[in-house]
Design brief:
Blueprint lengths: L1 E8 L2 E8 L1 H16 L14 H31 L9 E6 L6 E8 L13 E6 L4 H14 L2 E4 L11 E10 L2 E14 L21 E7 L13 E15 L5 H6 L5 H35 L6 H20 L12 H28 L6 H12 L6 H10 L1 H23 L1 E6 L2 H5 L2 H10 L6 H9 L10 H6 L7
Parallel strand pairs: 5-11
Antiparallel strand pairs: 1-2, 2-4, 3-4, 6-10, 7-8, 7-10, 9-10
Amino acid sequence: MQVQELKNEGLSREYSVTISVSDIDARIDARLGEIGGDVRIPGFRPGKAPIKVLRQRYGKAVMGEVLEKAVTETSQEVLDERELRPAVQPKIEIQSFEEGKDLIYTIGVDLMPEIEPMDFSTLSLTRLKAKAGDEEIGEAIERMAKDFRNSAPIEEDRGAESGELVVMDFVGKLDGEAFEGGSAEGHRLELGSGRFIPGFEDQLIGVKKGDDVTVNVTFPEDYNAPNLAGKDAVFEVKVHDIEAFADTEIDDAFAQSLGLENLDQLKTQMRERIEKDYGDLARGRLKRELLDKLSDAHDFEVPPAMVDSEFDQIWTQYERAQAAGETDPEDEGKSEDDLKEEYRKIAHRRVLLGMLLSEVGRKNEITVGQEEVNRAIVTEAQKYPGQEQQVLEFYQNNAEANASLRAPLMEDKVIDFILEMAQVEEQEVSVEDLMKDPDEAESEAKAKPAKKSAAKKASAKKSGAKKSAAKKAAAKKADKDDKAE
């Protein structure tokens, strides 16, 4: 094998690799020798056919396999001999190959930069904490009780009112033809719930038991079924009954119907559930503050190709959001060049943070076990009732999908590792303050009178992160700025 360096600029390297024809021939002969013992050729005993005969019969068949293995092995040798650590999968291109001649290919690689993580014990961070109030817990239990309400047919001879149930059969048609998924029997619809197509429920206000009603609607332009989006449809509805809800009394009996001992236990569980949600939100705020500080504290060269790839993903998301009319109002009036410059900075930040966290994980031997990935797969499958098995099989049989779950698990473990060493101060705040966008919170803090104490200033400063992708609508949709990658 002959290796010639073609490029050595910053983190980019490129080499030309030549594998001699004699090496290729030797590899082919070795492979043919392996398969020769398993094939039967007339006129020869098993395993005794000459290499020349095997070449005539199977040479072309094994050529692709041999060349692929040769390139894989020699390209790894190039990296190992030069102690190169690729940041991404090397790019290999075959330059020339003809039977009986040398194989020449190039290998281009972007390297991991030298990364020296900061002393994480010098980080000062604030973990916000909000408690659930009695009123909030009461409202949550009331919403739960509403979901468990009983209903009974109304006795009065009157039309259905908003908030009541209509029990009905319906058939939906486009241009007079019933469409798939547009029919049901005995369906129970709460008027005013907003669960059906806009305008459908309004046209059922006032219907009575036994009525036959024609409902005309137009599916929204962004409806999730492309064949129905923006289409005019007619629903033929047969009303079987009108039912009114009876309020559920919130007492020990209600709690016992849920499998609990009493109302106090229900309140305790509801408080724990709400405060867990607040804890998850607080962790997101803490993680964002940490990533902002890590970004500020580290400045190393990152591979341009990785930044380009990340930028392309962000820009694609922006264009989709723009087409759907969902771009951030702050982007209005900005030129495309200005937006691209901002998004490229976001891409650079994400790549830098991703490489930093990866290096911290490598140096400290932080890993994600398959058992942890399996738990994540089960959690993901539970989001799709009735389709759990299909989801499980999808992740089990798809390496890329499996990796998409492993990456955030790894990131969270590295984040936890850093937080264990950092100085994290707990600060109790109102639910309203916890819910605020960090940028909004920082703006409010800066706008307050300068007389506040130094301690309050520090606290206010910690409560918000600096300019980030969270302000961008497109980036919000697919990849929150509290993620490194």
